[in-house]
Amino acid sequence: MTHPSYETDFYQWTQAQAEALRAKASEDLDWDNLAEEIESLGKSDRRAVESYLEVIATHVLKWVYQPQERTRRGRRWRNSIEEARRQLQLIIEDSPSLRERVPVLLARTYPYARRKAHRETGLPLATFPEACPWPPELLQEADFLPEELPGAP
Fold first, then answer.
1. CA 123/CA 36 separation, integer angstroms
2. Could you write out the DSSP letters of every residue in 129-153?
């Protein structure tokens, strides 16, 4: 039986590998590439968690620090925050071990959220706190939207 190549037809390779796994045909498994793909699945979830944390932090920063937009806060920002929270929760439900990594991932992604809020609002970068002013658990709460922070306009 000819086995599809990982390099030439990834989809066909995945199907053949799944079939070999189900048949417990270890001689047909491409062990190195399987290990790499499984590892990349975990990295993909981790990157998605970072991305959703960045969206939440960016929009919450804008919510607090962009006073001229407070009258327009409304649905778009709220929906974006709620959708990011929902997607984040779905990933964590599927991969609960990522919950304990959220504080580290938020600390890593917050500087990007801060710069993005700066670019999108036109406010000086120094307007936004250098470290995330909210604990990760609070940012994940469904109804959390701060009205202001000390030093916010």
1. 43
2. -SS-SS-HHHHHSTT---S--TT--
C-alpha 59/C-alpha 77 separation (Å) is 6
- Do residues 56 and 117 touch, judged by C-beta distance below 8 A? no
Tokens linked to 6: 């990982």
Instruction: Report d(CA 120, CA 69) in Å as an integer.
Output: 12
**Would you say residue 45 has pLDDT above 70?**
yes
Q: Is the pLDDT of residue 22 over 80?
A: yes
Compute the mean pLDDT over every residue in the chain, rounded to the nearest whole number.
Answer: 89
Residue 101: both structure tokens together: 């990594």
Q: Is 152 exposed, middle or buried (0-12, 13-18, 19+ CB in 10 A)?
A: middle
Q: How far is the C-alpha of 32 from the C-alpha of 53, rounded, in Å?
A: 32
Supply the DSSP string of 33-85, one letter for each residue.
HHHHHHHHHHHHHHHHHHHHHHHHHHHHHHHHH-GGGGGG-HHHHHHHHHHHH
Tokens of 139: 């940012």
Read off the tokens for 7: 């390099």
Q: Rounded distance, CA 105 to CA 35, Å?
A: 24
Q: Which token pair is 58?
A: 């960016």
